[in-house]
Amino acid sequence: METIQSNYSGTRIQKHFFSDLSVMLGRSMRHIFRSMDTIITVTIMPIMFMLLFVYVFGGAIQTGTANYVNYLLPGILLIAISSGISYTAFRLFTDVQRGIMERFRSMPIAPSTLLWGHVLTSLVSNAISVVVIILVALLMGFRSSAGILSWLAVVGILALFTLTLTWVAVIPGLTAKSIDGATTFSYPLIFLPFISSAFVPTKSMPLVVRVFAENQPVTAIVDTIRALLSEQPVGNEIWVALAWCIGILLLAYLFAMWAYKKRT
Fold this sequence. Notes:
The chain is mainly alpha-helical. The protein has helices at 2-15, 17-34, 37-57, 68-84, 86-97, 100-105, 113-139, 148-175, 179-183, 186-191, 207-214, 217-229, 237-263. It has one domain. It is elongated and about 60 Å long. Residues 37-263 form the ABC transmembrane type-2 domain.
């Protein structure tokens, strides 16, 4: 009898995975829209960086481009996403501390939908932040000659980058002992674009810094997005960017699922 009931429960969970996922996504999105200050906070800091670098430092930075905001925007978008994913860790940590996870595990729902609900919420909330920043950049003079296919490629890369960092954020969200431990991991990620080609060409950097900057994932991603937005040849940078994102995504997903199973 127990075996039959267990099989029935497993079949039901598999059959209703997407309906369960929609419930979890709706739950997480309601938290976002009830507390819009999280999106506002994530959006304001990159915009302030953009204003600072364009109107204060922009005249002193030689990038070889006529419009510095065009050069700067890809890195600003990555900073916004790196900042935004810390809220995923925060919300997941809160669920763990309040015992929400154990409650859901006792219900006949697909176990991974709780995590995927947070992950998809991160994609939506960060997409909102990215759109707002692009609109501000347009007011500041950003212009792009990219066609629809290039823009779709940019959207795809930003979505993959967000997905990758969100699964990284899931790990401290599940394993941290304090709220500070769950969120401060994002600080190095926010700082990483500053040691890349996001703000200045890497050739102007000292040798040791340049070697690091040219061989870390942000530079490949920034250069790819910048080339797509300006309708320039992408070259091998896009494959390097995809390799970094997919490799980190797979590792983060495996560690996150291991931590989730250990927690539950």
